[in-house]
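Work Package 3 (structural annotation) set out to generate three-dimensional models for the target panel prioritized at the project kickoff. During this period the team completed the workflow that converts sequence records into discrete structure tokens, so that structures can be stored uniformly alongside our sequence database. As a representative example, we reproduce one entry of 330 residues exactly as it appears in the project archive.
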Amino acid sequence: MRFLPSAFNLQPSAFLRRVGFLCALLGFFLCGVSSAFCQEAAPAGQPFRVVLVVSASIRPYIEALDGIRGELDRAIQANVEVVMLDRYDEKSGLDMADRLIREKPTDLVAAIGPEAAALVWRSFPGNTPPRIYSLILNPEKVIGVRDRDAGISLNIPPKVQLQMIHQGLPSLRRIGIFYDPANNRDFYDKAAAAALEMAVELVPMVVAERKDIPFLLQECVDSLDGVWLIPDRTVISESIAQYIIKQSVLQKMPVIGYNQFFYDSGAALAFVFDYAELGRQTAGLIIDALNKKKFGARTPVFKVWLNEAVLKKLEIKIPARIQPPVMVGP
């Protein structure tokens, strides 16, 4: 699905069947076979050595990678090595390991994407070298609950999303949300609690199978002010998203989506990530970790695009006062 890059996949891809080989490769790449884990980080005045492991050569990851490297180049002295996981078969990987076996110890390893994070966390189950992740949806399902604050996820807290929805579409008071409890029960519970605080009624549109969606939409459409679509592998496919948006617009009802695909397909409001900016945000965590500073969970930087053309069709006015990250989209 072109609107769901692997950053949104909840399960590591098939390459993890070779995870034993890749873990060995990454271990060689980072530290060699000597007891590099016991060596200290770069001495004062010496550049740090940072390794960036990237799941695949796709646009979101490459933009994030460029953002990380640019910010590190600007802010600190660091020698940055990049491992693109999708570029190696077994033979070339072993050749690479042999060539890099004598490399210096690594001060930090960062993973971009869920496959890279799964590999890094399996390869280095402790905290040496320090690990940072980026561009993962629901990181606790990839690296575990304990380390979910060790990076920049693609999860915008439900309360924050509702605040943005209220700022951009203040007339929405009864919002239907499609979700499968097996995937998003926790998200719904948090969103429902936040909605109560804002005098908004969140209507659960529970889906166990995609075939239920047309019936649910038809049954509820007359009583809703809007429909909220969230990442849910049971609910969302490209065709289903377009169907929901089309049917909702025909009923003069706005749809809220979670990336540019939804915006381009006719959603009235969409949460959009700038992946280069997410990379720069990740670089900030890397710099803090290298300098031994503590950090906690951070909401990923994002934008909220209002679709002016769609809102005109729906006869909904853009609020006179909107503040970033809410803005009229391109």
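Residues 6-153 form a domain with the Rossmann fold fold (CATH 3.40.50).
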